[in-house]
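hey can u check if this looks right to u? its 162 residues, i copy pasted from the old doc so theres a chance i mangled smth
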Amino acid sequence: MKLNKLFILLLAVIYLSGCGKTILPSENDQEEETEKETPSSTPVDDETVYSVGEFIEGNFGDKAVWVQGYIVGACKRSIKQAEWEPPFSYNTAILLADSPEESDPDKVISIQMVNKQMKENIALDSNPQNYGRQIAFLGIKQKYLGIPGIKKHILAIEWLDE
């Protein structure tokens, strides 16, 4: 009987010590993570800068790659809701293309505006002057808004027309 009580007590201690509080990242944590250099767990595919067409066709796995293009539109929820001309009302994502006049959904990629800083400095709803500007992003290719793009894992940004 004493052995059963001791066994039950041991199981209770093991069970209770395994419980812990889960802490989810906040938007501020995500902003800090986005501003940091490339983490070692996300290898960068050399320093090649891909065009939008090459990015669409490429298979990069989990490697972060550079892609450059012209900002040709804004979007939210789905590529079917893309805005191709000013005035722009969405700050969720921008669309990049190899040509500043492109408006074919099959020839653009989507880039998520992952934090407040990107929405304030890049998104077309508050920065219509960025329409047609050339920019490059370092990130991991994922499907976003129904087309190839980069979401969440944006590691670096560089304006190319400055």
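The first strand starts at residue 44 and ends at 50.
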